[in-house]
From TrEMBL:
It holds the Pfam family Lipoprotein_9. CDD domains: PBP2_lipoprotein_Tp32 (cd13597). Belongs to the nlpA lipoprotein family. InterPro entries: Lipoprotein_NlpA. SUPFAM superfamilies: Periplasmic binding protein-like II (SSF53850). Residues 1-23 form the signal peptide. It is found in: Membrane. Keywords: Lipoprotein, Membrane, Palmitate, Signal. It comes from the Bacteria. It is a lipid-anchor. This is Lipoprotein.
Length: 275
């Protein structure tokens, strides 16, 4: 998921929620009817692609009637889940979900982590992170979640040290040790791969890396780990629907060896299984 877009669209979520409740309310009973298909709202790539793989290859044998409904925005999947017009969604991270619930009074909860679209550190000047020279300039995303993730990535690889507990809210002001005296150029996330010629290195979101023809598994100097990463993309439902047998089946299928292999074969490191 693109956190930059999510943060922007979340500002509009309150109005969209009202619209969603009006437009979709007639479908409330359909989503909670365990005898019917499980309708899942998803972003097209990679979420809907992963769900389509499950539908075409695993769902029938597991006794799951699965319907995938694509959305290109980051508000409607949650409002549709809240009002019951879909039974689940698959597009977001936990930090975004927490922020959305807080701002909109919704009651969406996580079921299972599925994958990570990892941030990576890239450079056209050096081949290893340790080779960055004193005073090197590093471009990082300037939105709250992605900037914090970028700094956490650098800290996890020994380039800087951050204050305890800052998490994804970290900013350069939270750096307590900077042995290489790195300087940071804060840019819109989509711009970070475009300045690789002008800086010593840049932290780039997985989706923007792909668009820039970068291959995270091969080209990144360092890459986010997927296991236990709070920014994994997750399957979510309205609170109270976690025990729906259809949801439980889908959660099992999304974290199956078959899906892990599909992710590995299809996305070649630009998407990482979180299980």
């Amino acid at each position: 998921m693109r956190n930059t877009a999510k943060i922007t669209t979340a500002v509009l979520a309150a109005g969209a929620l009202t619209f969603g409740l009006t437009a979709c309310g007639s479908d409330q009973d359909a989503a909670s009817d365990a005898s019917g298909p499980l309708i899942v709202a998803a972003s097209p790539v990679p979420h809907a692609e992963i769900l389509t793989f499950v539908k075409d290859n695993l769902a029938e044998e597991a006794g799951l009637d699965l319907e995938v409904k694509e959305f290109t925005d980051y508000v409607t999947p949650n409002t549709a889940t809240e009002d019951g017009s879909v039974g689940a969604n698959f597009f977001q991270t936990q930090p975004y979900l927490d922020d959305f619930n807080k701002k909109n009074g919704t009651h969406i909860v996580s079921v299972v982590d599925v994958h990570l679209e990892p941030l990576g550190l890239y450079s056209e000047k050096v081949k290893k992170a340790d080779d960055l020279k004193s005073g090197a300039t590093v471009a990082i995303p300037n939105d709250t979640v992605n900037e914090g993730r970028a700094l956490q990535l650098l800290a996890a690889n020994g380039l800087i040290t951050l204050k305890d507990g800052v998490g994804t809210s970290a900013t350069p002001a939270d750096i307590t040790e900077n042995p290489k005296k790195l300087t940071f150029k804060e840019l819109e996330a989509a711009q970070t791969p475009r300045v690789l010629n002008d800086v010593d290195a840049a932290v780039v979101n997985g989706n923007y890396a792909i668009e820039a023809d970068l291959k995270p598994a091969e080209d990144a100097l360092v890459l986010e780990e997927a296991q236990d990463n709070p920014n994994s993309n997750l399957l979510a439902v309205k609170e109270g629907q976690e025990d729906d047998p259809r949801v439980k089946k889908l959660a099992q299928l999304l974290t199956s060896p078959e899906v892990k292999k599909f992710i590995e074969d299809t996305y070649a490191g630009s998407v990482l299984a979180s299980f």
